[in-house]
Design goal:
The chain is globular, with a radius of gyration of 16 Å. The chain starts with a helix and ends with a helix. The strands form 2 sheets. The chain has a two-stranded parallel ribbon. It has a two-stranded antiparallel ribbon with strand order 3-4. The protein has helices spanning 2-18, 88-93, 131-143, and strands at 27-30, 61-64, 99-103, 109-114. The protein has 2 domains: 2-64 and 96-143, no CATH class; 66-95, no CATH class. It is an alpha+beta fold.
Length: 145
């Protein structure tokens, strides 16, 4: 499911770029608790056989959060700890699984949407099909703030 949602975000990113919107960037940050899970299907590497990867590799960046305390230094000192089995970046951002955090051009949080409860797939059946457009509208609004 998460692989599919990340794929929808990939589609949204490609749509924005095709519309000439090139100042929007997206990336996924894998939580420390998922460090041992394979990411090959999340980014659609060649060995992934999931149908969510039929279009090939995704251009969105995917990185791994650590629990090494590197992000807990300087202005973040005392905001997170190393080796506490909690993701440093997820801890600093108070992030949960499938949180989609939109920042404005200054790096200030503009909106937070949990994709577990707000499925972005526009082809799904039901009341959630307009979430894709709502998320796109939020991204566009954050550009202008």
């Amino acid at each position: 499911m998460c692989r599919a949602r990340f794929g929808i975000l990939n589609d949204l990113y490609n749509e924005l770029v095709s519309e000439g919107i090139t100042d929007v960037k997206m990336m996924g940050i894998n939580g420390y608790q998922y460090i041992d899970d394979s990411i090959s299907c999340m980014i659609c590497e060649n060995e992934c056989t999931s149908s969510t990867c039929n279009l090939g590799p995704r251009p969105l960046a995917w990185t791994q959060d650590q629990d090494d305390g590197i992000n807990c230094q300087n202005e973040n000192q005392n905001l997170c700890e190393s080796n506490d089995d909690i993701s440093d970046v997820w801890n600093l951002w108070d992030a949960s699984l499938r949180d989609f955090i939109i920042l404005d051009r200054y790096g200030v949080e503009f909106a937070r949407i949990n994709l577990t409860y707000n499925n972005p797939d526009p082809s799904d059946i039901g009341a959630c099909t307009d979430n894709y457009q709502k998320i796109k509208d939020l991204i566009l609004a954050a550009r202008n703030r």
